[in-house]
């Protein structure tokens, strides 16, 4: 396996691990802290946990950016697709996967059920961590694709360079 493919696999696995870890932090740990706080009216645990959780989300976005830059051009499209899915998970769920006012959902049942399950298990935390990391992935993927296209265009010979190279030089 070439070094390029290895970097791509590591970047994709790393971004997936970050998404899973931050989804757990947001939907399990932070929700549990909020529930305990609402029963005891003791805000200390939540007040001290929130800044560190925000730092974890920001760090996750930075690591995703570093992974995308390190891996290079092959992660662009997967980062855009996965990032857009998670960044737009809330509107996907509420506008297309849930039937409101006794109307059926817009999406077919298997796809609507999948989106609802992902939303329930990853998108319902107070931090919005998965959506924020998804937005970061989307931007990193678009940047990677843009850099790839820019480098491809800049390395192609321009018409004027080709015309000058084709003319014989006087000696």
Strand content: under 5%
- Termini Cα gap: 50 Å
Helix count, DSSP H or I runs of 4 or more residues: 7
Oligomer: single chain
Tally the beta strands. 0
Radius of gyration: 23 Å
In this structure, how is the largest beta sheet organized?
none
Overall body shape: elongated
Describe the structure.
The chain is mainly alpha-helical. The chain contains 7 helices and no strands. Helix 1 (3-40) runs antiparallel to helix 6 (129-155), helix 3 (76-87) packs antiparallel against helix 6 (129-155) and helix 4 packs antiparallel against helix 5. The radius of gyration is 23 Å and the shape is elongated. The termini are far apart. The model has no long low-confidence stretch (mean pLDDT 84).
């Amino acid at each position: 396996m070439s070094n390029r493919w290895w970097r791509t696999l590591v970047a994709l696995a790393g971004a997936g691990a970050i998404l899973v870890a931050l989804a757990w932090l947001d939907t399990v740990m932070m929700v549990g802290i909020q529930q305990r706080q609402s029963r005891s009216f003791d805000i200390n645990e939540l007040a001290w946990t929130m800044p560190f959780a925000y730092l974890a989300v920001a760090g996750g976005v930075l690591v995703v950016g570093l992974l995308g830059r390190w891996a290079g051009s092959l992660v662009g499209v997967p980062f855009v697709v996965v990032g857009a899915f998670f960044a737009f998970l809330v509107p996907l769920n509420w506008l297309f996967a849930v039937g409101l006012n006794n109307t059926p959902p817009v999406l077919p049942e298997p796809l609507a059920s999948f989106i609802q399950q992902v939303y329930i298990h990853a998108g319902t935390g107070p931090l919005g961590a998965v959506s924020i990391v998804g937005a970061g992935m989307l931007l990193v993927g678009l940047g990677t694709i843009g850099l790839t296209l820019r480098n491809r265009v800049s390395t192609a010979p321009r018409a004027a360079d080709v015309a000058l190279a084709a003319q014989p030089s006087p000696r």
